[in-house]
Amino acid sequence: MRPSADLDLARFLTREHHRIHLIGVAGSGMSGIAALLLELGHRVSGSDKSISLEVERLQRLGLEFFHHHRPEDAKEAELIVYSSAIKEQNPILTAARGSSKPVVRRAEALAAMMRDKRGILVAGMHGKTTTSAMAAHVLREGGLHPSHYVGAEIPILGQNAHWDSRGEYFVAEGDESDGTIRRFHPHYTLILNIEPEHLDFYEDLAAIETTFAELVEQTSGKVFYNADDPTAARVCQCAQSISYGLSEDADYQGKDIALEDFASVFCVYSKGKQLGEARLNVPGRHNVQNAIAVIALATELGIPFDKIAKSLAKFQHARRRFEIKYQSDRFLLVDDYAHHPTEIRATIATARWAGRERVLAMFQPHRYSRTKALRKEFGAAFDCADRVVITDIYAASESPIPGISGRVIAEEISAHGHPGVSYQPRLARVHCDIGNMLASGDLVLSLGAGNIHEQLSVLAAELVIAEKLKAIVGEEGDVRLHEPLAKHTTLRVGGPAQFWVEPRTEASFAELIRFCRRENLPLFVIGRGSNLLVRDGGIRGLVVHPCGGEFDRIEVQSNEITAGVGAKLKQIAYAGRNAGVGGLEWMEGIPGEVGGALRMNAGAMGGQTFENVVRVRFLDSDGNAHVKTPAEMEVQYRHVATLEKNYAVSAVFRGVPSAKDEIVRKLEESQHKRRTTQPAASSAGCIFKNPGTIPAGKLVDELGLKNTSVGKARVSEVHGNFIVNDGGATAEEMLELIEQIKAAARSKRGVELETEVQIVGEPL
Q1: What's phi and psi for 550, nearest 5 deg?
Q2: Closest alpha carbon to 262 in 288, 228, 294
Q3: pTM, to two decimals
Q4: What is the pLDDT of residues 323-348, one digit of tens each?
Q5: 129 catalytically annotated
Q6: CATH superfamily ID and name for 331-457
Q7: Which of 359, 363, 431, 584 is positioned for an S-S bond with 459, CB 3.0–4.6 A?
Q8: Residue 173 annotated to the active site
Q9: Which CATH number is 4-106 given?
Q10: What is the pLDDT of residue 4?
Q11: Half-sphere exposure of 740 (CA within 13 A, CB side)
Q12: Catalytic pick from 14, 129, 231, 489?
């Protein structure tokens, strides 16, 4: 076997057939190399820890894929190609070097294949994927049959890499991140921009400039550079250079740019002469610059401008380059690979042109080294976004740097004066935070080179459902994503409701029930949220809060009061006072609504709900309406089985004719007793059912547990059966305190306490 130094790699790869193994083949760059090698007739194998759709496609074309990196799987290979992400300790890499088997980097293999053709290298810190894809498309439409290699999925090209034996040109996206761009000796080079980046590899901007200057020196033909980028203009000054951009002194210049939603129309001039008008269906001023670079290249290669313009009009950008993931009249969700401050500013500016009300951004920083080096620049990059959620860093194989996290960027953005930034360290919760911010007219951007786009996809799927729910409840109803249930419970504790829905009519409530049945979605109904403890992970599916409209109505006829489930019990008591109907004064002491009171047969001050109920109207699990009397229902102490899987919509309560003065006296007594025996702090009401032997509150008092706390959850000093939230308590703290009380009652008094409060939802 020939050692690497003696290997004519260009001939080996483009003129001969061999067995070649790729380490890290599932990466976008390596899968492109695999595609080229397969088309060149090699027997190709590859290994990776994960598989991708592109790898599955390549397997159908002959790739032999191995899950994990084992030396024996590459034993027969005559050449090993590996990506920059592969560690030196990789078993296959170590074994190959130990046996003197030829080993080359991805960039070396690509550069060698390009030497068999007239290479066109697209280089720069930003825009390489879009520009190289655009160049390959325009040259292909111009009949030049180019080969291409692009670092992302390109729908309009069919695949991210292709070898075409008919053509003499090879368009490739260069990678400057690890310095291997020095390996290329292209015929043409397009340099889009040069600025500080990849500072984990380069010492400073001067080192980056040196690398690009070397590339310019190694280019045998013309060098196309962005005249709008001062550093690129300085580095690329040579006899064969051609400038492009929006500057007046550019050799190829774009003028009269009209930005139309997701398209740009502009005029192109070459050395003062108008070539014509072009339309690009890819948004952003920066992409106009990229298109002018391609126009300059194609024109120099002899393609007529009319053909170039027609090709550009058909061009579709790469995956994750301002890719629309969801679009409706109310919302627009866009994903972009932007992960450098310059890219982020350009992408947010492009989003602004879409004409939506607000731009909400979710950003996942990429690499600890980049975050540390460019933290100040990141702080200024989000000025044009209305709200920003920053999550933690996508490491991309880097080791953590102490003190560097996503919080650093959030703090820099805030320090720069942005009023709407937050930090969410849990990636899986980012879509929840953004979802709860959403309002009609918003555009949401996911930004980053990691896996932040997965959060946008989750949000898009939820919006499909949310839009259907909104259609059901109508303009008068409300639908919110990931609504914090701490806002809707008297305990002020609880994670989010995946879909918070407020119907205003019985008909829309019934349709929601039917929708959940069809879509197999969980449904939970909440009233005012008293007597309820929601776990910190929240509630999946729909949380329906019938309120307003039909559900808030209260009507008095004689000594009967009809009330919707959204009416507060206190309102019924006072409606009775105004109409001279007594016997309902106890309701003043319950901070809940009719629906919750019916569901659990709530009681206070010696009274219970169903002692006053005449009949209940409810919807069954199919959304059909029924009316039943208490005698026809299963009613128990703090439990009504009939309403476990049925949903009350209204009830008729009966009082007794009473003198108004007497009703007022009883209401005042109820108020006084509540104020003197119950805590004013946030609580769910009584936590435990009263055991038969002793009231629960008295038991807790006798156990000496008043004022016992876990975090911000505390047993009230006023009433032992109340646990209060001292501000910021979590459900986990509440539940731990409940368990401590139950354990003490069990071990010291032999009493098994049963919770009266309803505990629902999922843990974090």
Answers
A1: -65, -25
A2: 288
A3: 0.77
A4: 889 999 999 999 998 898 988 988 89
A5: yes
A6: Mur ligase, C-terminal domain (3.90.190.20)
A7: 431
A8: yes
A9: 3.40.50.720
A10: 52
A11: 18
A12: 129
